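Limitations

Structures in this collection are predictions, not experimental determinations, and the ligand pose is part of the prediction. Treat each record accordingly. The example that follows, with flavin mononucleotide as the small molecule, is included so readers can see exactly what is and is not provided: the inputs are given verbatim, and the output is the predicted complex.
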Amino acid sequence: MKKIASALLAVVMMISMAACQSQEQSQPESSESSMPQSQTNTQPESSIAAPEESTAGNRILIAYFSLGRNAEYPDDVDASTSASLVLDNGQQYGTTEYMANLIQQNVGGDVHMIQTVTPYPTDFDAVVDQNHAEMDAGTLPELVESDLDISQYDTVFIGYPIWATNAPQAIFSFLSEYDLSGKTVIPFCTHDGYGAGSSYTDIAAAVPGAAQVLDGLAIEASDVAGGAEPVAQWLQEIGMDKKAEENVQAEGTAITITVGDTVLDGVIYDTALAKEIEEYFPLTISMVGFGSREYYGGVDFYPENLEGGQKTFENGDITYCEAHHNMAIFYAQTDDPVLSVDVIPIGKVTSDLSIFNELSGNVDITFALAE
Ligand SMILES: Cc1cc2nc3c(=O)[nH]c(=O)nc-3n(C[C@H](O)[C@H](O)[C@H](O)COP(=O)(O)O)c2cc1C
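Predicted complex:
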C-alpha cells in the first residue's frame, strides 16, 4: 500500500514539477531579490559560503540541502527548463538555496550548503527511486567534509526540499553529524504543492537536545522567487527579526575569553566604556558564580564613561557594574533578569555558554583581544 502511495506521489510530483517548470519560466528576473555576492556561485562548494565574511558575534547558521547543488547539472543547464533551479538576475540557484539566501538577507548569519559525497542523479525518477531506497533502508548518505564549527552558533536554520513528504535523508545525516543540543532549531522547506509533510515532526525528533524548535516555513517552489515578503513576515512572527538586531549589536572587536583551558570567542563593543576597559586587556579577573546566572569579579580600575546602565541582560553579555565595581559574564536567566543595580554591557561571549554551568568556586577568566 505504501509502495502504491509512493508511486502515485511520484506520478503526481512529475505532473506538478512540469507545472512548476512553466511557472518558473514565466518568472521575471527580480532586482529586489538579488542575492548577496557570496551566494551567486553556481558551482557547489564544500563548506560554509565565504566563512571569512562571518562577522564576530554572528551566531546564526542557515544550513540547507538543495537538489540543484547536489546533482551534477551541466554548467550551462537552463534554469527555465530545470525543475530544481531558480533564476534571479541571470544567476541560477537551487530552490531551497534561494530561500536560504532570502533568510540570510533578513537575519544575517552564515550559509552552509549540505552536500552529499555522492551526487544525486539529474533524472527526476532516478532521484525518487534513490530517495525511496534511502528512506526504506534508513540510509544516512555521507556528507562532504566541511570545516563547519557548529559550536559557533546558537540558532540553526535547517532548509530542504520536501522529498516523499519528508526531509531528504541528507538532512538527517546532517542532524546526526552535528550536535544541536541547546540550540534553537528552525526548519524551512520548499515543495511542489504538498506542504511540509511530516518533516517538522521528524526533524524535531532528530534533535531531542535542542533548546527549542520554532515553527517552520514551507514555500511552494513556484512561489520561491517572490518569497521575500512571506519569509520576512515569518521571521517576524517567530521573533527572528529581534535576533538579527542582537547580531548587529554583537558586532565589535573580536576578543577571547579564556576560562581555564577553554578559549571562548566574543566581541567587545565600540562604545566609550568598552574602549576604556579594552585598554586593560589582557585582563584577568578572579570571578565567582552567582545565582546560577553570572560569573562576576572585582576590577582595580575606575572607568569614567558610565552611560547605558540597565537592569536587564542577555545571556552572553559581558558587563561592567559601577555600583559593585566589578565585571560580569551573564550566561543564563535572561528571561528573568532580577538585577538590583545597573550593569552596562561592554561586550558579548559569542561561543556556547554551557561551560559556565559546569564551573564551581573561583575561576580566573582572562579577556584579551583576539589575534
Ligand atoms: C525525490 C523527490 C521527491 C519529492 N517529493 C515531493 C513531495 O512529497 N511533496 C512535494 O510537494 N514536493 C516534492 N518534491 C518536489 C520538491 O520538494 C520541490 O521541487 C523543491 O522545491 C525542490 O527544491 P530544491 O531545488 O532545493 O531541491 C520532490 C522532489 C524530488 C526530487
